[in-house]
Design goal:
By secondary structure, this protein is α/β, with parallel strands linked by helices. The protein has 12 helices and 11 strands. The protein folds into 2 domains: about 5-145 and about 315-330, Aspartate/ornithine carbamoyltransferase (Rossmann fold); about 150-310, Aspartate/ornithine carbamoyltransferase (Rossmann fold, 3-Layer(aba) Sandwich). The chain is about 40% helix and about 15% strand. It starts with 10 loop residues before the first helix and ends with a helix.
């Protein structure tokens, strides 16, 4: 059975197929491609764009979406094998997931990192439990390791602007009030590498992405003619970039390098002065939500570079493409 919960489920060729279909359907809206189809959406964590865009994709094309919020209207779900269920998790995924598969044609799951470190995030326990026990295809709406639909929307936005994905792009760390998961930067890196981009990843010391993610991205870049450079020099990474992606993420738990507190790294917040170091045609992208004047300055979000709303719209377009792809193969 085919699932899509990580970029490796597509590979570089599959990524290009989804981007092509999304771009075509953005120009020429398909008809009732999801008639009599049901998407079951399971949320362990909150959402705005993700929920709205997936529901819209189903409803606008003749299908339906059932939304379930774990612990708020449904039982809390246990995913650990051999667990003694004497706590607040009343149902195990071993029963819950296949039951949902009897009602829906495919399942979409949103489950954030539990903040237990890079090694646990790499195992992606909840999303992989759904893959193991589901009898229908599973889509990721973000997991501990990746947010693959966001990565696809990011690259579709770059492709629309520059006519190609094989351009210089910058992924730069940004400050926040708390350590955030690495799923979004992971997916941007992986998808950009699968698309052959020249990627510059800039971050303070101690905020390295996990080695497994970096190795996977390097393999994609080698296959697509892309390039990846890691640096602690934000200005150097921005020089001549065609697209700038700023995102906060927490310290590395696998590098062994001590990270400075976020409060001491306010200078990493992108401002208009930062964007002026990029190319004249540069765009700024961000997954949203964004904390203005903490993570990204108003001058960037309200400036001529910003494509964050276009990027959010593109979630809808890539998602109906992946839904259609999975339904066509199931």
């Amino acid at each position: 059975m085919k699932h899509f919960t990580r970029i490796s489920d597509l590979g570089p060729e599959g990524v290009q197929q989804i981007l092509a279909k999304a771009a075509t359907w953005k120009r020429e809206r398909p008809g009732a491609i999801f008639t009599d189809r049901i998407l079951g959406m399971v949320f362990f964590n909150p959402s705005l764009r993700t929920r709205a865009s997936f529901e819209a994709a189903m409803l606008r094309h003749g299908g339906h979406a059932i939304v379930l919020e774990v612990g708020a209207g449904t039982w809390k779900l246990e995913d650990r094998d051999g667990a003694v269920m004497n706590g607040d998790r009343a149902e195990h995924v071993r029963e819950g997931v296949p039951v949902l598969g009897r009602y829906a044609d495919l399942l979409a799951v949103r489950t954030f990192s539990g903040g237990e470190g890079d090694a646990v995030d790499e195992t992606d326990p909840v999303i992989n439990a759904f893959r193991r026990f589901s009898t229908v295809p599973v889509l990721s709406m973000e997991s501990a390791r990746e947010h693959p639909h966001q990565g696809l929307a990011d690259l579709l936005t770059i492709q629309e602007t520059h006519g190609s994905t094989k351009v210089p792009v910058t992924l730069t760390w940004a400050p926040h009030i708390k350590p955030l998961p690495k799923a979004v930067p992971n997916s941007f890196l992986l998808t950009a590498a699968a698309c052959g981009a020249d990627i510059r990843v800039a971050h303070p010391k101690g905020y390295e992405l996990a080695p497994e993610v970096r190795a996977e991205a390097e393999a994609y870049a080698a296959a697509t003619g892309g390039k990846i450079t890691y640096t602690n020099d934000q200005d150097a990474a921005l020089e001549g970039s065609a697209a700038v992606y700023a995102k906060a993420w927490g310290p590395s738990t696998s590098s062994g390098i001590e990270a400075a507190p976020m409060a001491d790294l306010a200078a990493w917040m992108p401002t208009a002065a930062h964007l002026q170091k990029a190319s004249r045609e540069a765009i700024f992208i961000h997954c949203l939500p964004v904390r203005r004047n903490l993570e990204v300055h108003d001058s960037v979000l309200d400036g001529p570079w910003s494509r964050v709303v276009d990027e959010a719209e593109n979630r809808f377009h890539v998602q109906r493409a992946t839904i259609h792809s999975l339904l066509s193969q199931s």
